[in-house]
Amino acid sequence: MGSLPAPEAKKPINLLWGKPSPSLIPTDQMAVAAQKVFSNPTIAIAGMQYGDSPHAGYEPLRQRLSAYLCGFYGCPSDPSHLCITGGASQGLTVILQMLSDPIATKAVWMTAPCFFAARKVFEDGGLTGKLRGVNEFDDGSIDLKYLEREMAKLENQPKTNTACKPTAITQKSYTHLIYIVPTFSNPSGKTMPLACREALVSLARAHNALVISDDIYDMLQWPSTGNEFTSPISLSSISPIPRLIDIDHALPNHPSDPYGFRHTLSNGSFSKIVAPGVRTGWVDAAPALVRALAGCGATLAGGCPSQLVATMLAELMDHGWLEKHVRETLVPAYQRRRALMVEAVNRQLEGLGGGVAVINDGGPVGGYFVWVKLPERVKATDVARVAKEQEALVVSPGPLFGVAWDEQEMDLEGFLRLSFSYEDESNLTEGAMRLGNVVKNLLDTSDQMDSDSVNSRHLDSTGFGGKSDL
């Protein structure tokens, strides 16, 4: 008798990747933009050179980006406030090079749970052992009382060393760095309320702290409605919560900041609104801080980051194409994807005691991720392992987002981060079903272990099966 055929392998589904679906990447438009650049010798040569001093980036892109940000946020903007970067992560690296010091900077304060990949950037910047977590609450605010108390403790410690980097009026070292993703946070998807943003700015100004605000998901938002599938999108009804830099810049310059670096910056990127491979982003900040970033040694020696791609992005932004792409392609797609995932996950897990943890009823929703609460007795690391081994499903377990070196490490074993940005819509539903299967099986295993434990204790109490019988 012949052997049975091997079961067909399941199609892999990846709910970890925080990147756009290939169907949402504007390859045709990028090709047109590239053709426009290379058909104009003046633009083409500008794109293939180092870039003009003061090396803050391709000026036409800064001008068009400034107008776009002004229209989106409803706040005044100027190209002098913008420095083009090689993306948000490369921008963070330059920020650390120019505005932090391995000795003088006492701590990096990160929202807990945090964007895990940022930890390595801070550690590579000479700040290993200085990362500290600040707990995020259900409403998206953070524990400011704890932050203020702990910053003061560090400032009151006796000074043992001086800064190891030379400073000048074009370079400043902050005592504290505060890293946040305030809108649709990665991983939790929460949004920091205005009152917390205002209080955080005041705290940063009082303690020579720089708030590094990753604002990369801001444009990917839509109103929360009763039915995300059928309700028409009215982006005109969205009034984005003011950024921390807008709050900071509305205040008078702080006496401890004579050169006007300010205490906040907005780290932006085209990765989420065009494509990650364009490797281009921006820092929106006070002109003094922009000049400091533009004076980075690597930029002075090697030229403006992403200079050639910047010319193509400037073409994309001409005549409002990028704004239309975000409004008419990305936002509707992500709105539907998120709704599908929330409904599918809740259908699988709510009856088990789990489900999507963050639902912004009445407020804007958006970003790339949903934060899922698991039933009690189920650990995220077990779910991730079993899902990959048995269901060909990749998910992000909560402990991945802990803050290294944190003395108040949160227990994140009860959570998963799921991305709705990459997989096709059908795979989002299928992925939720597979996740439900994994959780149910783990709960059944836990119940069986509990039952076996009870039976074992019963045998011992009746005189059978205990050590006294050996």
Automatic annotation (TrEMBL):
This is Aminotransferase class I/classII large domain-containing protein. Residues 56-434 form the Aminotransferase class I/classII large domain. InterPro entries: Aminotransferase_I/II_large, PyrdxlP-dep_Trfase, PyrdxlP-dep_Trfase_major, PyrdxlP-dep_Trfase_small. Gene3D superfamilies: Aspartate Aminotransferase, domain 1 (3.90.1150.10), Type I PLP-dependent aspartate aminotransferase-like (Major domain) (3.40.640.10). Residues 449-470 are annotated as: Disordered. It comes from Alectoria fallacina. GO terms for molecular function: 2-aminoadipate transaminase activity; pyridoxal phosphate binding. Pfam families: Aminotran_1_2. It comes from the Eukaryota.
